[in-house]
Amino acid sequence: MKILVLHRVPYPRIEYARGIDHDAHEVTYFGTAALLATLPRGLRHEAVERPGEASTFDEAFAWLSREPRTFERVIALSEYDLLDAARLREWLAVVGPTTAEVILVRDKVAMKSVVREAGLRVPRFTGLADFLDSPHAANWQGRTVLKPLSGASSEDVVIFDALDDVTRALAKRTSGVSRLDSHAQSVDAYEIEEFVSGDILHFDGLVANGEVVTLMASRYIGTCLGYAKGQPLGSYHFPMSDGAQAWVAAALKAVGIRQGSFHLEAIESGDDLVFLEVGNRVGGADVVATFEHATGVHLPSEELRLLLGEPSRALPTTQIDDRWHGWFVFPGHTLDDDGYRGLGEIDAFRGHPALVRWAELGAGAPLPRKVTYSAHEAPLAGIVANLTWQGTRDWIRALFSAVSTSPSVLRTPVPPAFAIPRRQAAPVAGI
Question: pLDDT confidence of 185, banded at 50, 70, 90?
Answer without folding.
Answer: low
